[in-house]
Structure formats: structure tokens, C-alpha cells
Amino acid sequence: MKSLVTVVAVIVFGLSNVSTSAQYFGVEADFGISNVFISNPRAVGFNPLLSAKIGGTVDFDIADNFYLHTGLGFSKKGAATLDDGNLNFFYIQVPIGARFSFVEIGAESSLYAEAGLYTGVLLSAKFNGFKQDVGNTTLDDWKPLDLGLYTGVGFAINDAIDVGFATEFGLLNIDPEQSVFSFKNAAFMLGANFRFGI
Question: What digits encode the pLDDT tens for the residues 105-120?
Fold first, then answer.
């Protein structure tokens, strides 16, 4: 667990120090819903739960209207059950993706689309307020690592404020038991990113 956190921190620190290419640092906040999807259609499913994400971003200018996007954030995900309570996951998350502005609106604003991968390290998991075990053995409740795809569309104002909608879909089974069906994270969020040029 500690080694995963160290790897993520080194990646983000290294990217943030490429000051010759970095154009913007920013702060983002997203709110929406999350869920855990089960591959077995006969299994009792979960219901959506309120989710949130906050963190810092770094955008690297690759070409006109094209950026490499990354950062470091704290993300709350999970799901709700009808009777037993809420399942809450708390991740440190690193996205790496591309962003393209495709329609200019006025002199300084535009519509954009983005897509990429995210990696999440599970710091804590709780079910109905009780702490659950995080690890890779069959005795643990949830795996410490999540990897998934993210996509988004939005409106950029003066290259300083982004307002948009984003989705995240997990690719890894986060159940350590690796049973006949899998558990995967998903989130749907509205948010804003306040960027500062350098």
C-alpha cells in the first residue's frame, strides 16, 4: 500500500516539475453520483451514492488547442444499499489524458472534450460506518488499486475556468476474492476547474 502511494507521488511530482512545458496549474472540484457495478445480472446490485472529488491539475501545452492533462486528487466513491447502509471508498487519484478544444466561442472561450486513464489508490473503505480491510489477499474486502477510463466535455472560459461533465468507469475488479463476477467503480460528475497560467 505504501509503495503504491510512493509511486503515485513520484509520478505527479515529476510531471509538475516539467516547467518548460507546463502552461497551467489548477484546482478542481467535482460533485455527482457513484456506483459499484456487478457483472452478474442476478446478483443484488447497489444504488447510486453521492460522490465528490477535489484536487490539483497540471496541463501541458502540446499543440494549438491540444493539452496533456494530469494532476492529483482526493476522490470519494462508493454505492448505497437499500437496507444495510452505504459503502464509501476514499481514493487518491491520478488522471493522465488528453484534452482538445474543438469549437471556439468568442475570442477567449471554447467547448472541449477530454479522455484518458486514471489510477486510484484506496486509502480507506467503510461500510455502514465500519472500516473494511484493504489488500490483495482473499481475506481482505477490497483491492487497493483501481484503474479506469475517464471522459468529459465542457465549456472553457478565458482559459481560466472550465465547467463540465465527466464520467469514470473502472476497468479492474476491485474484489480481492476474484469470484465468478466482478465489482467495478463508476462515477458521473459535474465540476469546475480554476486554472492559473505560468
Answer: 877 889 999 999 999 9
